[in-house]
Amino acid sequence: MRWTRWLRVCAAGAVAVSALFSPSAGDAAESHTDRLTDLVNPFIGTQNEGNTFPGATVPFGMVQLSPDTGHSTGYDYTQRRIRGFSLVHLSGVGCAIGGDLPVLPTTGDVTETDYARYAAPFRHTDEEASPGYYRVRLGSGVQAELTATRRTGVQRYTFPATAKANVLLNAGQALHKNVSSTVEILDDRTVRTSITGSGFCRSSRPYTVYTVTRFNRPFTAQGTWHQGAITPGGTRTSGPGRNGAYVTFDATGDRTVEATTALSYVDAHGADVNLASAQGRSFDLLREDARRAWEDRLDDVRVQGGGDTLRTTFYSSLYRSFLAPNTGSDADGRYTGWDQRIHRAKGFTYYQNWSLWDTYRTQSQLLGLLAPREARDMALSVLKIDEDGGWLPKWGYGPVETNIMSGDPVTPYLTNAYQQGLLKGQEERAYRALRKNADGVPPPDSMYVGREANREYLARGFAPYIKGRPYAKPGDSDYHHGASVTLEYALSDAMLAQMARGLGHHADAARYAARSRNYRTVFDRSTRFFRARDAAGAFTGQADPARSEGFHEGTAWQYQWLVPQDLRGVIGLIGGKKAANDRLDAFFAYDRLLKDPAGTARNVWVNGPYAYYNADKYNPQNEPDLIAPYTYLSTGRPWQTTDVVHAALTLFTDGPTGMTGNDDLGTMSAWNVFSSIGLFPVQPGYGTWGLSTPVFDRVDLVLDRAHYPRGGLTVTAPGTSDRDRYVRTVRLDGADYRRTYVTTDTLRRLGTLAFTVGARPSEWGTAADAAPPSLG
User: Fold this and answer.
1) CATH classification of 36-294 is 2.70.98.10, yes or no?
2) Closest CA to 774 of 520, 485, 550, 535
3) pTM (2 decimals)?
């Protein structure tokens, strides 16, 4: 624990520090049992399509050095062969991307060039992982250890005694579609590559990464390969297909080989600059640097209460929340912009990898709360995408737009940054970019789709669902998801209206607020559910909401609550609070939930990681339903929010199957963190935080004084448990509080948020004015 952090917490008066920490004489005296990194299990989510990775990285690092086993997105716990340790992995994505330059140590003659054939067997009993470190003993007898810095991956291989200790560097195979590659052996310690790939989901736009690998001692032999042809002594190979190199060491005496690989999205010089920034420190020191970086990050949240499993799932979720976005600029500040030109970030770090359809709902708010300095740079990076490439992104990977997913997720992402105070001095710049995005469509010759259905939406109030419409550009099409796209455009309009009002653009604010009510245009009064409309304006698809069409990764049942800007209006359309509560109870299988919360979560709600359609129940493993449990806050039954949230939390466990679907760059993990604390962003893009019962007796948050003058927030719920889970009272800094939400402005001034809990529901939060506000 950092002594400076100790002082900050004391000064804030936010925690009873003697109960949490003991000040040490220095970092060296830190007790192993006090390490929060020991509570993190990187293997959580590596089975059943959680699609996480167990390898080594640092917070928001450019490099994620991790094993690939043959699964499309990297590592699958059920597989038993490692193809290589590659440089880039996105945590929890559902499509293949990254996996650049898989490197594998082998022994003996090099006879295979396909990593599916030369893959090494391993056992989980010979494997371990912790934040910033990964180790495995391969079936060949080689022990591989991995750690990372911000822009490099560092490997240490311990070979059995052999004169043929090889390291294979495969530039021609990856998780993505490999377009072409080049490999050069520069001298007896150095290998350089460039790798061009593409293929995230339906995207085909290529990008290039550059690497340089420096070994700690000379190799005794070398060679290259192209496709299946191996060239002993070769120094260069390039073109489409499998290109790679091998280097051989004499390990009969010194059995250890270390290598540092640097990555750049700019050019070979950038890789050299990044390599130089990590040179001069041993593997063990770099491993400890990585651990301390994670310890420092996790130390912003200290919990009391709960069992070992609960603490492990919580801190593992917190860890995954800080994996992305990723550093995109080199150590010299240069980065490749979305115009494919080289730029230099001045005064900030440029970040990339934007799963915005996912992260705008939870993870971006968590970073704004716990990592505001990085979150500001991330928001500035999104604005640079607009300046460099001409439009705001939807789902960006590296320096390209993939156009994956639908709607307008960048608007609530940036309006949230505004509401959390991350855009100071840049508010008008951000507003101009958002206004252009909200009122237009990107040029046909650009790579962006933006609000693809905006012309129809602006003219008629809805995005039409046009089944089978040809894709205008690689990626997804808003026309294929007209019903849910209408809801998401309207949500974004509501959040932009609030930003416009705050900046004094009152005419714009009124215009966007009116558009935020466009969700009503896709409400079918005959079924009392949202429903897609075709190009002529007629409702289309099956009337049964469980089998509806035109909703992206969901059904009308699951999208019915995705109107956080005006839940009062939705409740009115459904028929009032009683009708809405009846529907919520059916949606959550509430009667069954009360009898068997964990069983209901696993056997009724969850039907497979990609079971998005043909369902009338809550889907806790996918984004459209993340806010749904908090709808009860708007229907006068806040205790039912707690029932549903606590049942959903049982889906997070401390083993490889501890996530029930894609983590999507920390989105589901951030949901777990917020819901465990009892504070949730119920209006993404605006500063409204719903309240529910925490699962810990006490949570102490260290916050940045520049944004939160008190320097910290303590959330208490003494005695909270599966039985005593209902809120009886809430007090803010000692004052009684009866609403079911707080605002960001309140959080900035707040020091303590105190819940008292009991075994039965109470009257707290049931008054008509207790619900989160409508924004229209």
Assistant:
1) yes
2) 520
3) 0.95
